[in-house]
Amino acid sequence: MAAYKLRHVFVCLFIFLSLPFVVHAHDFINDNRVVTIGNEDIRIGFDASSGELMAFSDLTNSFQVLNNANTGRRSLWGIILEKHANVRELNMADARSFHFFKINDKKIRLEWSDFSVLSNLHFKVIVNVSVDSLKPFSEWHISITGLQGEKLEKVIFPQISGIKGMENEELAVPVWMGELIKNPRGVDNTKKDYYWNYPGMLSMQFLALYNKATHGLYCAADDTMNYFKQFSMSVDSLKDVSYQINNYPSFYSTLKSYILPYNAIIGVFKGDWLSAATIYRKWAVNQRWCRDSKFKKESNDLWITRTALWVWNRGESNNVLVPAEHLKEKLGLPVNVLWHWWHGGAYDDGFPDYLPPRQGVESFKQAVAKANSEGVHAILYMNSFEWGTSTESFKQEDASRWAVRNIKGDMEPHVFNIFTHHSLTPMCMATSFWRNKYASLADKAINEYNVGGIYMDQACDSYLCYDKNHGHSIGGGNYWVNGFGLLTKQIRENNESGQPISLAGEGCSENWLPILNAFLTLQVSNERYAGVNGPKTIPLFQAVYHQYGVTFGNYSSLVTPPYDALWPKEYAPKHPEQLLDPKFNEQFLMEQARSFVWGMQPAIANYHDFLSTKRSREIDYLIRLTKIRYKVLPYLLYGEFVRTPHLDIAEKIIPISRLSIYAGQGDRVKSFQEKVPLIYTSAWKAKDGSMGIAIASISDKSSQISFNFDSNAYGLGEKGTIDIVTAKDKRTLTSYANNKIKVDFQLPARGICFLEIKND
Fold first, then answer.
1. Distance of CA 328 to CAs 27, 240, 371, 408, Å?
2. How many CB atoms are closer than 10 A to CB 105?
3. Per-residue DSSP letters for 297-340?
4. Which H helix or E strand runs over 13?
5. Which strand ranges, in their side-by-side order, compose the sheet holding 42-47?
6. Contact 153, 407 (CB under 8 A)
7. Do 14 and 39 form a contact (C-beta atoms < 8 A)?
8. Which of 113, 356, 544, 744 could disulfide-link 281, Cβ–Cβ 3.0 to 4.6 Å?
9. Which SS3 state, helix, strand or coil, does residue 6 take?
């Protein structure tokens, strides 16, 4: 009997300890108890009475992520509700009841209910947090039940406040190609807010805040279905950083519950932006956008993949195709054209009134046919979703019915054109009306004019649309990228040319890898349109996805910008496309060197034959660079981006121009100065395991290239050879043995080469 009673006590105790720990928020105001989960690398602590995040510890690097001085205001989530046109924001403090259930040492469930501001007694918020068994990362998930009678506008989750300063901080964000923000907290007490939309200008689902010498915070999501969300970081007046993801459910009053269709990932690491990219890459390359990548599936069949050099010119064919034909003859490799201002309507104004071509149909077709016969292909500019609100077609076709609408029911017009001041408004990509409109224009360009493809401007961007009559989920969802995929499928299915067509788009994004054949990544010339004081461009996208998508293009020009002949004549410069001051030639070399080492197809903007003599040194640099790249495509087209061995590189302050078709116009060229490297490098792994190192100098003096590393660090063999590839030849530079690779040679002024390291 005694044994039975003792056993009964243990059973009851076990049941009690297994039950969720239920508390009321007001009962434990001064209670400092913390419940923790973790592994050998990280430990996460929550207030047992409220669920507030109390600690996020990097055990390996002995760093506490959170500033403990600012506890008491750290709601893990925020919820925006609308009812009868009244908007309310809830957070953890509005819940009168909280309980947690610690499933094991690595998993916890947190629940909030009984909200004082809601009449709905069934409303409940559930958060699950789990720590990886072996890695310093955690998964965060939220669900909401009892939504009857409420319209859920936005779910802010996770919301991590009070992130401690790390000193010498850098913030790496994949804004299209990638941006590096140094000292993101700033030097004063000014509040700062950073927002990045995904899918869209945020090309991948991660960001990293770090001190590369000591520790860093890695924040990501694992959405594989293209749901719209917004990553955000903000800095308050105390210089504390907060991180959050704004998630957008479908905006229905009939919604009874919401389950976040992906996880947020939060972890720690030690390293820099490439370290963070490598973490993300391990997950990303196993997702469907890599399996279905257009480049992986169709690369050998398309002229766009074989492009050696792009010419980005504007206007009629004599100003576009003819210079490209001449440059192709000089280069002896495939030269193709990105063609703007061929269209009948004014740029950034008369969209989508592209047809007929401004130079006339027959003249246009003859010029395209001649270029095609000489192996010069063109992709024509067509904005992927904008419609000019001042055009007659906008009114005649009742286009406003199919335009993107915000949550208030209004269109989203905006003005790009600083000369006409006419607005464009985005059309909803989820509507068959817009897809049919766009596909019919592309159909004519491809099948009647016989162009090689379409360049879809603003492609890698997306909007939320709240129009109830468009047939898509209202507000949040994944309809934009899905609609874009349907549009490109329709264009390809309409192709009757007998040749595969190429579709390229502005920006770059993992979501568009299965949709587009190439991505125009202009941030290589960031200074030309943004100046020198903002974020610095880094090849984050190439570091993750280089072998899954072709990137190309830049604003790199040796002449002043063109002016659209259809814009107001009173603003036209007297002499467009004239030689820039030669002091900016180094900027041109810098942009070309970046393109080369970042694994992009090189390009020149506003090319003319006179540049071969007037800027012979710069054109020679471009030609040498292009020829070398074309010899090493297993690396610079198909290879994987890896960390470059350390090399000491000198820097120099050079003049920088800020000048594009809009920037710097009216008040002439804006000139800045910037300290830049004189040598640009990158490293690559080919499919066969060999390694390559790209090197491009913009210095007017010779440079000693000297570095060494262990071959094991790159999966190379114990011994092998190192060849050097130049525009003229390929020869053996040296060999290595005992896993010790040592390189030491002199690179001539403005020298370009590629080192190929192979096992014996």
1. 78, 54, 11, 52
2. 12
3. HHGGG-TTTT--EEEEEESSGGGTHHHHHHHHHHH-S-EEEEEE
4. helix 2-18
5. 34-38, 42-47, 53-58, 63-64
6. yes
7. no
8. 544
9. helix
Q: What is the DSSP letter of 122?
A: T
Percent of the chain, pLDDT > 70?
94
The SS3 of residue 735 is: strand
Query: Which two three-digit tokens encode residue 60?
Result: 């390996």
Query: C-alpha distances in angstroms, 479 versus 459, 475, 692?
Result: 14, 10, 41
DSSP string, 444-502: HHHHTS--SEEEEET-S----B--TTSSS-SBSSSHHHHHHHHHHHHHHHT--SSS--E
**Nearest CA to 138 among 64, 67, 218?**
218
Residue 641 region, left (φ>0) first, then alpha (ψ -120 to 50), else beta?
Answer: beta
What is the H or E stretch that residue 433 is in?
helix 432-447
* pLDDT, tens digit, 9 for 90 and up, residues 100-157: 999 999 999 999 999 988 988 899 999 999 999 999 999 999 999 999 988 999 999 9
**Which has the closest alpha carbon to 607: 309, 385, 229?**
309
pLDDT, tens digit, for every residue of 442-460? 999 999 999 999 999 999 9
**Domains of the chain (ranges, CATH numbers):** 21-284 (2.70.98.90), 289-641 (3.20.20.70)
CA 584, CA 655: separation in Å to the nearest integer? 6
Which residues does residue 322 pair with via DSSP β-bridges, in sequence order? none
Q: Structure tokens of 352?
A: 């989508």
